[in-house]
Amino acid sequence: MKIAVCVKQIPDPATPYELDPENHFVIRPADQVLDDTDRYGIELGLQLAEETDGEVVLVSMSPAGNLQGIRQALAMGADKAIVVDDEALRGSGALETARVLAAAIEREGADLVIAGTESTDGYAGVVPQMLAEFLGMPALTFARKVEHESGTIRIERQTGAGYDVVESDLPAVVSVTSGAVEPRYPTFKGIMQAKQKPVEQPSCAELGLEAAAVGYAGSGQDIKEVRPAPERAAGVKVQDEGDAHQEIVRLLEQAKVI
Amino acid sequence: MRIWVFAEEVDGAPSSLSLEMLTKARDLGDEIAAFLVGAGSSEAVAALGAHGAATVYHLDPGDILPSAAAAAALSELCASESPDLLLFGLQPTDRDVAGRLAARLGVAVLSNAVDIITADGSSRVINEILGGTTLVVTEFTDPGPHIAIVRPKSFTAEPVGSAEPTVVAVAVPDTAHSGSARITASHAEKSSGPKLEEADVIVSGGRGMGSEEHFAAVEELAGLLGAAVGATRAVVDAGWVPYSLQVGQTGKTVKPSVYIALGISGAMQHLVGMKDSATIIAVNKDEEAPIFGVADLGVVGDVHKVLPKLIEALKARH
């Protein structure tokens, strides 16, 4: 089975990003990391590939300028990567991202497409669904458990109250929640091998995408204003000297909870 | 302005988020309709009408996962009825339909909206970034229809009357392989106490609780206060509690009167789901933890020492 796993390089979440005051785009630092929530999709892809003697291809779209996060993903064991890093993509929204990923996946061919439910930096949360629509596949979304059995994919799909069991035949798109599987740590061997693994970097033109269909101009949205949110009134901070629980009791009384 | 609101029916009722969005839609537009996906109970239709939907388009998906069919049906309706703005909620099925519909129509989706502004035919969405510290105002620039995904509890649902809406049955379109996913079983998590989204008091625990066994103290405190139990993503990922208890960007958004955060550092993804609670109490050993930035009362200390004493004190009052 050939499995495409969508991954994204993002600014390190440990250091809050900044916005360009001119165009309000995220200022992407020189070093970006693999979105941590992508590890679940990669792990799932690797497990399914191991079961089916298959192949895992990473697919990524971002004007990142480097491959640090992609190498992290390859180090887990994926076979190769396709990275679309084209200046024309700056300012793309979810729809353009999905268009680019779909074009790359269509060219490569895949039985199963795996993605996270949303990225940690953009979190629009609709790219897997858009991707499925472009590829003409069902989208089995918000999976907390995934099983594959001779061409049928079955997931437990998270709902507000619990979960639904959802199944379809392949090809399909599956979006996984964090916690669905336990991501493996890259081995030293994996890290060394990742440096040698093939990374294709097609341009938008090579994928048959017109500039007008991607990037900020094609995104159908314009950021008008960025402003600080109204601040919450500062609270009281106390060090526990053994009786801080009494402060909590007092506040609960005040709020008439007790 | 013609505004449509997506409504998924769960257990005979439209999602609470759909009623919140209808209430907002009434302020923004004059022709309000709902697109109901589900069995189509008369109670669900009546609730949508009571919250301002003059028309209810109803699609009954049976046992198929409705996203592809609903998106296809909506895109046909968009061509004939030309709604200006479609509102979806930040919850699984709404997101599935919104994404597929936008791809079909080739239009933008603006997600995570906490407010919507319309003026002179244009629509703008306000969303929060950086854990809710910064607001971004974005305008739709394509001809539309414009699609926004709204965060829960951004608006308060208020009924407006009891007008019977006109119900328009929508056939399930053939979406070939795209629409072939089926729901073969449904499971509800067992839970005691109030529902997280509706609770007046919530006690949440984070990774700082240390272990699944220690997390039981969070549940004990919640029991004493008649509160709902919440958790961070780290705790859900670790398997201590089910996803239905997760508060945050990828979980539930809550606005209780009192939110007690125990052993929670306050990652951005958690803060966006609870920072609008009326009163926030936090216990964490790290003085620099971001949770203290939103807490009305922050206790810097060991949760394993503070929490047992708090539980004892509350038990002594009973």
SS content category of chain A: alpha/beta
Separation of termini of chain B? 55 Å
Q: Output the strand order for the largest sheet of chain A.
A: 9-8-7-10-6-1-4-5-11
Number of strand elements of chain B: 16
Order of helices and strands of chain A: EEEHEHEHEHEEEEHEEEH
pLDDT averaged residue by residue of chain B? 95
Which range best describes the helical content of chain B: under 10%, 10-25%, 25-40%, 40-55%, 55-70% or over 70%? 25-40%
Low-confidence stretches of chain B: none
The major sheet of chain A is characterized as:
9 strands, mixed
| Fraction in beta strands of chain A | 25-35%
Distance between the termini of chain A: 59 Å
Large-scale geometry of chain A: globular
What does this structure look like?
- The complex is a heterodimer of chains A (258) and B (318).
- Chain A has helices at residues 38-52, 68-75, 94-108, 127-135, 188-194, 244-254; strands spanning 2-6, 9-10, 33-34, 55-61, 80-84, 112-116, 139-149, 152-158, 162-169, 172-176, 199-200, 221-228, 236-239.
- With 258 residues, chain A is of the alpha/beta class.
- Chain A has a nine-stranded mixed sheet with strand order 9-8-7-10-6-1-4-5-11, sandwiched between helices.
- In chain A, helix 2 (68-75) packs across helix 5 and helix 3 (94-108) crosses helix 4 (127-135).
- Chain A starts with a strand and ends with a helix.
- Chain B has 318 residues and is an alpha/beta fold.
- In chain B, strands 1, 2, 3, 4, 5, 6, 7, 8, 9 and 10 form a ten-stranded mixed sheet that branches. Chain B has a five-stranded parallel sheet with strand order 13-12-14-15-16.
- In chain B, strand 1 and strand 2 (13-14) form a beta hairpin.
- In chain B, helix 3 packs across helix 4 (92-105) and helix 5 packs parallel to helix 8.
- The longest helix of chain B has 15 residues, at 67-81.
- Chain B is elongated.
- Chains A and B meet through helix 3, helix 4, strand 7, strand 8 and strand 9 of A and helix 3, helix 4, strand 6, strand 8 and strand 11 of B.
- Strand 13 (236-239) of chain A pairs parallel with strand 16 (297-300) of chain B, so a sheet runs across the interface.
